[in-house]
Amino acid sequence: MKTLKPSEIAAYCDVHQRTVSRWIANGQLKGHKLPGRGNYRVVLDDFLVFLKKFQIPVPADFQALSLPKILVIDDEEGYLKSLKRLFINYGYQVATAKDGFAAGVSLMSEDPALVTLDINMPGLNGFEVLQFIRQRAELADLKVIVISGLDDVDLQHAMNLGADAYLKKPFDNQELIALAARLLADR
Fold first, then answer.
1. Of the residues 2, 35, 57, 95, which has the maximum number of CB atoms within 10 A of its CB?
2. What is the CATH number of domain 69-185?
3. Torsion over CA of 68, 10, 85 and 170, rounded to 10 degrees?
4. Alpha-carbon distance 157 to 45, whole Å?
5. What does pLDDT average to over the chain?
6. CA-to-CA distance for 113 and 118, rounded, in angstroms?
7. Full-prediction pTM beyond 0.85?
């Protein structure tokens, strides 16, 4: 996990180092203090999210260091497009699948770091896709967020099958972005 110093961020953004420290202190830029003198550090992925959020051009040095890929699995076209647009706006690479079968193919070909998974889909439903994910050794580190309009009993069943988290439809976009960032940081 690469981290940046406020002085490095200041150079990229063409601002003073104190400005960067204020961004961190005000919560605009996610950062942490080191023990001892309390110097700030920012994880590279958090800096990239900050740049996208405030529509600041990504420095050429970071163009190749994009955020991880997210696979969005949902049979509802509106949710599929909305989630894809949301994640792209925050700098993530995004692949999509409209059903459980397409999800299985995409899981093996796209190598996502995180999946958002609808449960109620035709053909292979989300529970079956989740079981497939948790049975494959090569997908053991894959983070799964279930996003569904089903009741709490079904959502708890998804957690028991190995989902890392769930959100009920409708959900808050910022809550989803924060949850995805937290799960990806825990990899």
1. 95
2. 3.40.50.2300
3. 90
4. 32
5. 91
6. 17
7. no
